[in-house]
Amino acid sequence: MPSSFHLLLGALLALGPLSSSAQSARPVEPAPPAPVVADEARKLLGIWAAEPVFGPEVQGELTVVREGGAWRASIAGFEVPGRVDKDVLTVALPGGQGTFRGKVGADGKSLRGHWVQPQVVVGGVQYASPVELRALRKGAWRGTVTPWADRLTLYLGVYERPDGSIGAYLRDPEKGFGRQFAFNVTLREGAVTLVDPRGPTTLEGTHDAGQDRLTVSLFFLGPLQFTRRDRDQAVGLYARTPALGPYVYRAPVAESDGWTTASLQDVGMDPAPIAALMQRILDTEPGPTAKPLIQGVLIARRGKLVVEEYFHGFDKERLHDLRSASKTLAPVLVGTAIEQGAKLSAQTPVYSMFPAYKPSAPLDPRKAQLTLEHLMTMTSGLDCDDNNEESPGGEDRVQSQEGDWYTYTLDLPMGRAPGGPQAVYCTAGINLLGGVVRNATGTWLPEHFERTVARPLQFRRYAMNLMPDGEAYLGGGLYARPRDALKLGQLYLAGGVWKGQRVVSKRWVERSIARHSVMSPERTYGYAWWRHELKVGERVYAEYEAGGNGGQYVMVIPELELTVMFTGGNYGQFNLWKTFREELLPRYILAAVRP
């Protein structure tokens, strides 16, 4: 279960890996200047960096051997027995230091599964990452475990204001940690104090002048050592490190991940607007004021990847937190379960899919009307509103529960009858779809995702976040390579087919992207797909998207045969990351499409 330690972390990380709401949060303004004081704080001017690494300790080569009916596995100096139950091999390291779950392929040449790592410090959850072991010989398999890296990179920028006072801002390229802080800085006899005058936050530390090293205690992270970085060393703080001059377009390189690549000209797009967008990103300088923080831009047209650019320390292999953009995967998994033969439909009653559920109070008769479609369109009627702190079904309340989150959601009172046009943003309802899929298929959700989505779409790596009971959380927070995440948009643009293989039915795709409910006057909702209309000159284009906190977007513009992905770090700053769609997409990307 999440401890108070991890709940505090989630709050301080501005809605951490499991979180997705706070879309209306405003950008933080710089702290008011402190009175000018004659101290030594100017010695601290510049960029400082700390890079704490928390693990996981167990990773690397995993070898599994079967000798008769006995199984054993070795990794990172551990050698432990395995057990098989219903064809599933489980290998658990002592002390909860990691668990492998997998199955041997029918031909015996592979052993596929997931590695579940211990609860991480940066986020407070567990992740399941795919692992494939290849046969060394009969009865022996070997592969590499690459868990999600539990680390954090923090930058402290110290600067002088026009009045001579010293300020500081805290930034990181991964989580948005510190975006809500803006400090006044003092230094006296080696003692450093950073005070946020808008709130109770005060950080204290020391400056070792001889070593020019700054140590600051940061909440539960404890004392962190910061060292100086110049412009060419601050990877992640600046858009590109080092700065290489004006942007030059280069077509993406084809890899063994399914994407066909081409140039912009090959697919009828003008490189000039795209270059202007990239230059705008490169020209954005870090500082105490909030600015758009774009970490990746990918564009595919006519099924070909034509733009792939990464910024702020990210690259094509680095997994990115999709936040609520991965909510859209929940209805996708319902669709793949149906495609695989599960007896489900959009009209399946939700409570019928939880036969073991025992209500804590007499069941409200309106709950019998609740269907999967109501969950997928956020019209469940449950008292669940992520934008209302008093709602018992709000995301933060659900994640603070010690027990089963599915049961807690099923126990929620009804606020109104299911259905109707008005949607209410409810993460718990989307997550509950996972319980339906699990019960309908009898399969652990990471295994179902791997078999029906990740493998057909040729995902290379990902990290699936888990609930306290070890089941996958579908309310947001999947980590994936942007090249792989963009395939979700391409899959739906192609009517449910990727590289000639059907993943979901065309009918399911059509129902998913159709209008089912209304979030706001200009934002309608399908099956966890947001729907908009975008104007470019005199033209209006229909667009649907998976969207997540911070600027995580998988966008589809069917009329132009276009899919676009943004990844970003503007967590909790909806007024900034909504401009990715409202301004940047039409002004630069749609404008680049030639008639």
TrEMBL record:
Q: InterPro entries, alphabetically? A: Beta-lactam-related, Beta-lactam/transpept-like, Diverse_Enzym_Activities
Read off the SUPFAM superfamilies from this record: beta-lactamase/transpeptidase-like (SSF56601)
UniProt domain Beta-lactamase-related: residue ranges:
297-566
Pfam (any one):
Beta-lactamase
Entry keyword Signal: yes
Q: Where is the signal peptide?
A: 1-22
Domain of life where this protein originates: Bacteria
The answer to whether keyword Zinc applies is: no
Keywords from the named record: Signal
Please state what the protein is called.
Answer: Beta-lactamase
Q: From which organism does this entry originate? A: Myxococcus stipitatus (strain DSM 14675 / JCM 12634 / Mx s8)
The organism that produces this protein has a lineage beginning with: Bacteria, Pseudomonadati, Myxococcota, Myxococcia, Myxococcales
